[in-house]
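Sequence in, structure out.
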Amino acid sequence: MTAPTHTTSVTGRAVRWVGDEPFPGLVEVQLTDAHGVVWSMVDKAPVFDDEDRLRANTAYPVEVQVGCEVVGRGRLDDGTEVVTVSTRLPWGIEAAGGRTEFLVDVHQVVTH
């Protein structure tokens, strides 16, 4: 099986250091959907940042990329182009309540 040649992510904001346990520490990231609803996700810092920028003494907020996959495309009634993303893959990231699918503005999605 061949590894994918690109990855997809959605832009979020790391807003605070949650704690040092479990190692290497937990951070809260917020994702704002296409309707302006803010969703909070808490996971290990490296899940949101492979550059080691997120630490207890970091000046928050910090823009981060949350790994995801695109599962749908469409438009809102006002014509705004939107994308439905799932954060279940590749890292199993969930918002409070277990939500993993989010409708976001197309400009929040980045393919690397």
